[in-house]
Amino acid sequence: MRSEKSNPAPLGLKLAAGAGLAFMHLPILLIFLYAFTTEEKSYQFPPPGLTTQWFAVAWSRPDVWAALTLSVKVASIATAVALVLGTLCAAAVSQTRFFGRETISLLVILPIALPGIITGIALRSAFSMADIPFSFWTIVLGHATFCIVVVYNNAVARFRRISGSLIEASMDLGADGFQTFRYIILPNIGTALLAGGMLAFALSFDEVIVTTFTAGQQSTLPIWMLEELIRPRQRPVTNVVAMVVVMVTFLPILGAYYLTRDGDQIAGAGK
Amino acid sequence: MTAVFFDNVSRYFGAVRAVDRVHLTIAEGEFFAMLGPSGSGKTTCLRLMAGFEQPTGGHIEIFGETAEGVPPYRRSVNTVFQDYALFPHLSILDNVAYGLMVKGIGREERRKAAEDALAMVKLPGYGTRRPGQLSGGQRQRVALARALVNKPKVLLLDEPLGALDLKLREQMQEELKILQKSLGITFVFVTHDQGEALSMADRIAVFNEGRIQQLGSPEEVYNRPQTRFVADFVGSSNVLSEDLCRSLGLKASFASLRPEAVAIAPPSEGALSLAGTVASQSFLGATNRIVIDVEGVRIAVASPAARGVPAVGSPVTISFAAHDLHPMEDA
User: Fold this and answer.
1) Which residues in chain A have Cβ-Cβ distances shorter than 8 Å to B72?
2) Which end of chain B is more exposed for a tag (fewer CB within 10 A), N or C?
């Protein structure tokens, strides 16, 4: 068995893997390339010339800034809501036994399994039935539904690794509920919450479907980009913004990956 | 003064009677063992004392104060957990000082107290390490220091030596005993190891199915088991059946007989004797365990290894003094 592992992969497999990776990632590189093109109306290949002027143009356009700040605000608040509710829910499900525990666990995870369009329609009709005007807060609520899931999933995995006797030991040594949460639980689930929060932020930041159903007149950054593609003017500005989106979402996801990977050593009560 | 008082205490989990109408009184400064097989209710009793469980019925007092409804963090009781439950994200010093920290004692004072406690359990200078860097025996000592630094009135130990190897366990038994005598704190410890209970405790409560079968000094529990369960669980006494008892002229329906009280020899004057055949034999180091079949009843004999071993199947006579035969209840 060992020799099989060290055998080099056959050439065909290598080519197929390379082709697959190229198919996934070359289009992203093209987006970066067209952020520098001199041609603003169509995406002709190869670009007739290269320029950095679109960065300046994007910087000075107020609609870009409005969309960006809205997206950051929505993502931040949705993440904050998800952190509180997701952690509480994970604590309840992992630390106690009660009737309907498994059902609640499933219902919390459901929004991420459901197609976004279902969540979107459901929320939209619920908002109109309850006569809630579409606003910034309806977007936040819509995003929070799936942000809670990622926070919950991260927190529940970490809670399961905290031995129940740690909490009992803390109480036994004289710490009340708040002190136990602050000194024992929070330090042990901190990295999981950070990772979950980062993922939630990234998810919210580039969400389109639920947003189209729950937003009023406002455009978040992804919605703005969608509208911009139809317009044949200053197209490379969209590409510049796309680069920003990649940056803003990719870094937290990378961070979350490293945080949860190291989590094994942080929470490991044994060796 | 009475340290722990249980009056008719029960704890049910649904239909399961984990603790069933238990009475017990533990005196101040006593080293008290709760012995029993797993699921016998001994750990639940400990958790009732610590405050992690509330009784379904009955009354608990700790140093004269009612304990029902008092949360664990308001009891002058500390616990050494079976898995030690050291906080993995804190240094050893912060682990030991945790109880003082949540009480709001100043940094310098609690550092000093924690270092003293670590020195007491023979781990001076280990304060900067993490729990993951210590061996099982060392973690056990840290758990002990972390509990004792709070100067509890009662220290609860839940199978404290269960995870240690034999040599370390014997050493810790000795140290725990010395520590308990020098501190004068009431120790209540739970174990399923009868040898540990016998060697360490001042008094032992033997638990089975949520009830105390017998409560007494190690000598009493070992030499005069009151029930068949105790005879069987504590050092595997022989249980003599009704017929055998009658043939020996005893009135009780059952009687216990310790293997080491029996000799394979013709009876000397005044001793009782039975005839049987050797059923099996095994070498246990200092002694041989020889099982004799007497009219269908198996009687184990602990025979010194220096003495010869009769062949399996050969007829032998066993003898014992009448006062080694202890009548008991059928339970």
Assistant:
1) 168, 171-172
2) N
